[in-house]
Amino acid sequence: MGKQVRELMKTVFDKVYEDETIYEAVKKIAASEKTTIACVVDKEDRLKGLLTPRDILEALEVRDFGFVRGHFFAGPEVLHLLTSKYAKDIMSAPVSVHANDGVEEAINDMLDHGFYELPVVSEGMKVIGAISYFDIIIDVLEGHKA
Fold first, then answer.
1. Distance, CA of 119 to CA of 129 (rounded, Å)
2. CA–CA separation, 53 vs 23, rounded Å?
3. pTM, whole model, 2 decimals?
4. Is the distance from CB of 8 to CB of 136 less than 8 angstroms?
5. Which fold has domain 5-145?
6. Does the structure show a pLDDT above 90 at 48?
7. Could you report the per-residue pLDDT of 89-125, keeping only the tens digit for each?
8. Which of 86, 109, 131, 145 is the most exposed place for a label (fewest CB within 10 A)?
9. What's the CA gap between 62 and 39, in Å, rounded?
10. Are 7 and 143 contacting, i.e. CB atoms less than 8 angstroms apart?
11. Span 81-95, pLDDT tens digits
């Protein structure tokens, strides 16, 4: 049987509240430099979504530079980004793993969703940590040294 997420996860993760302004959320994420994603949570710290670098860059591209690149957007999405104010307005859907899940499940979710890191949640969807591909790779490499 393979390792469980709890064996490799870190308890360090970025968290922003869903009702924080985009500016506040981005400022907090940029200042921490701990992770590649930020967990968007409600007042009870339950996971509501993720703020990824892509989410932030797309919002900045539209709002601060006034243009849209490629075929990523249709009209309503651009309007949504122009009028968004809060982290919840630009966040991606929540993707997470539980501490008791196998590391293989975390790898599959990362590959399926294009993330390098995932939040680890409790049964009540409260964020308790994060697991990244670096955590997994380091563990594999250390196992090969023996």
1. 6
2. 14
3. 0.81
4. yes
5. CBS-domain (3.10.580)
6. yes
7. 889 999 999 999 999 999 999 999 999 999 999 999 9
8. 145
9. 23
10. no
11. 555 788 998 899 999
